[in-house]
Structure formats: structure tokens, C-alpha cells
Amino acid sequence: MKELEKTKRISIAAVITILVVIIALLTYKKPKHLYTVNTQQALEQTALNNFIQKSELNSETILIDIRNKFEFEKGHIENAINIDASDILLEDNKNVFETLKEEGKNVALYGNTPSEAIAPLMVLQQLGFNNVKILAVNNSLNQDKLITTPAEIEKKGENINKFIETSAKKVNELMKAKPKPKPVVKAPVKKVVIPKKKKKKMPVEGGC
Amino acid sequence: MSTNKLITPRYLFLSALIIVLAGGLVLLPKFEKQEGIAPELLLSNAISPERYISTDELADRIISNDPSILLIDVRDEASFNENTLPNSVNIPLDQLLNEDFEGYLDQAEYDVILFSNDSFKADQAWILCNRLDYKNLHVLKGGINEWFNTIINPKKPSENMPQTEYNLYSFRKAASMYFGVMYVDQVKKPDSKKAYVAPKKTTTTPKVVVPKKKKKKMPVEGGC
């Protein structure tokens, strides 16, 4: 009898632990979106050419406008699909990207500036959509018409150090050219100052 | 013996069940890859423009010797050597996750400001760091090119612009002088001032100034 009680306890404990494990597994939510690359691989992706020029567009490239609906309706590039940048992970939109990837098509994102598109680009790339790029354009509206101009990214600007040097040079040259008038101006000033000082001292003496 | 017969099938069943459940662990390694914050959160963080700091704000903080800022140049070494912002550290984008640099990026002491030629590479660096949940990171809006256009070489506002534009211009001009830019009118101005002031002194000022000073000193004398 004693042995039977022991085995009963053991089996009850075993059943409870199994129940706990089952409940834990059932309540475990599988995350909706999974990264397919780790951060190191994501870093390597940034070194790739992530841009596509407007002239390189062809029928294999689908344009996606990541601006909001209002801006999209005001004007957009021909044949573009509107998916707001903040909605790219919604189920319907993710399905769009998945079907495009399965069909082997390229995706070009564009916004008002290329840097607007960088957030959706990097998130999509890290979720495994390697076919996504950014269309290198700047967009602006003019009288309800979309004006698209090519954009240069990470363009090297003017050299700050050189600019400062040349500005200093210019000024130095001017300083050298104008030394003569200065003493002429200063001389009368000194003469004026002296009488003032005399007047200042007078009242002070009286005070003491 | 009778008890033994009862126990064995039960144990067999239970142990089999546990083995089956253990199979569920096979699923877990798939999620181990999930490094950093959830993609949804990353997206909403990356879209938000709050990471940007304007060139004016940065200039103001540099000039006021704010000790809490740390500038990080994410361009390659050659560009960094050519020209950069004062007191910045170079962390090329391709070495961003190098262990040597982790101390600069993953910390709570400084406001780290990432910059590149425009804000593109810096944005990429920011998004990667954000996935790793690094705090206190910012991006210089427009990068070095914007810095050059606004702070180093500010554009003079035209006559029809509002007063605020003029105030901004005078701030930027003063800032550019702080960073070493010299202006031609810096030389001209003192000259012209002297030229204007000098004649006034000779003719009118002595008369005006002298009585004023006397009045000030009189009450002091009485006090003694």
C-alpha cells in the first residue's frame, strides 16, 4: 500500500509538470515578424549598393510610394503602389512584399527624400527581403504636380578646413593692405581723450 | 509484482510524453537568431524624426562647451582625416559593431551624435544601433554638408526675409567665427567705426560726456 501511494504522488506530480509545460507552449506567441539576419549581416547589407536610379527602372521593378495616402493622392510616380512607411509590416502589405519576392521582382522605395525611405528599407532587408532598394530621387509638389529630381546620396561637400583657411587668407591679405590709414585715425583720438581725463580728476579731488 | 505491472505502463506513457514535448525545444533555436528589439518597434523608432539634432543646436552646444556630447564620424578614415567636426571620434560604418567601439555607442553618459556627409550613413548606423537597443544616440540632420551650408558658410538673408532669419544668420555667423572662419567685413567694420566715431569725438562728445560724469560722482562725494 505504501508503495502505491508513493507512485500515485509521483504520477500526479508528473502530470502537473506536463500540464505546466503544455500551457507554457500554448501561451507562447510566435513573433509575427522574424529577422532573418543578425546585426553583423545587417551591417554588411548597408555596404551594398542600396540605390537604384530612375533611369534604371524597368518592368521588373515595382515602385512603392512610402509617403502617406494624402501625399500619394496629390501626385505620385506612374505605376507606384502606396504603402505608408509605418504600415509596411501590416499583414496585407507584408504579403505584397512576399509575393513580389516570390515573383522575382525588384522593389524600389521612394519618399520625398531618399533618407525617408531608409527606415522601411533597413527593416525590410533585415526581415529577409533582399530585393528592396531605394529610388534615388527627391520629390516635391508644385501646383498638385509631382516634381521628381535625381538625388545624390552621401555626396562629398566642400572641405570645411580649406574654406576656413581661404577665409583667413583673404582677411589677412586685406589686413596687410590696410595698415596705413589706422595710425592716422588713431592719432586725433588720443588727443581727444587726454582733456577728458583731466576733467575726471578734478571732481574726485574735490570729493576727498 | 502486481504493483510493478501497474507502474510500468504509466511511466512509459509519461516519459514518452515528456520526450515528445522536449521535441518542441527544437523550435527555439530559430528564435535565438532574433537579436535586438522587435522589428515593429525598430520600424517605428526608425521612422520617428526625433533622433535628429539640427546643426544650429549642435553648434550652440559645442560653443557652450557642453561636456555631455560625443561626436562620432561614421565615414571612412580618409574622409575623416580630410575634414570633420571638432573633437569627433571616427568609427567607420563597416566597423560599427567592432568590440573596440562598443564602449562609445552603448553607454548612458553622453549624448552621442552620429554624422556623415549627409545623414544617410549616420541613419543606417543609428538604425543598427537601435536594433541593439543602444540609448542616447542622435543623428546630425543633414550631416557635414548641412553643417557647412548653415554654420560654416551661412547664407545671408535677403531683404524681404523676416527678422527671425536675420537673428538666425547673426547666430550662425558668430558660430562660424568661433569655428575659425574669418570675414572680410570683420576687418572693414572696425575701420569704418573708427572713421565715424573719431570726428564725432572731436566736435561734440567732450561737451556731452563731461557733465554726465560729474553728476554721477557728486552724490558719491556727499556720501563720504
Question: Topology of this structure?
Answer:
The complex is a heterodimer of chains A (208) and B (224).
Chain A: H1 2-27, H2 39-47, E1 51-52, E2 61-65, H3 69-74, E3 81-82, H4 91-102, E4 106-110, H5 118-126, E5 132-135, E6 137-142, E7 145-150, H6 160-177, H7 181-207
Parallel strand pairs in A: 1-5, 2-3, 2-4, 4-5
Antiparallel strand pairs in A: 6-7
Chain B: H1 2-23, H2 28-32, H3 39-47, E1 52-53, H4 55-63, E2 69-73, H5 77-82, E3 88-90, H6 99-105, E4 111-115, H7 120-131, E5 137-140, H8 143-152, H9 163-178, H10 184-203, H11 205-223
Parallel strand pairs in B: 1-5, 2-3, 2-4, 4-5
Helix pairs in contact in B: 3-7
Summarize the structure.
The complex is a heterodimer of chains A (208) and B (224). With 208 residues, chain A is of the alpha/beta class.
Oligomer: heterodimer
Extended strand count of chain A: 7
CATH fold topology of the domain at 39-151 in chain B: Oxidized Rhodanese, domain 1
Number of helical regions of chain B: 11
- Structural class computed from helices and strand pairing of chain B: alpha/beta
Unreliable stretches of chain B: 191-217
Total number of strands of chain B: 5
CATH second-level architecture of the domain at 39-151 in chain B = 3-Layer(aba) Sandwich
Gyration radius from CA atoms of chain B, angstroms: 33 Å
Strand composition percent of chain B: 5-15%
What fold name goes in the CATH topology slot of the domain at 39-150 in chain A?
A: Oxidized Rhodanese, domain 1
The secondary structure category of chain A is: alpha/beta
- Give the neighbour order of strands across the main sheet of chain B: 1-5-4-2-3
Which class of the domain at 39-151 in chain B in CATH terms? Answer: Alpha Beta
* Low-pLDDT sequence parts of chain A: 182-193
Query: What would the average pLDDT of chain B be, to the nearest integer?
Result: 78
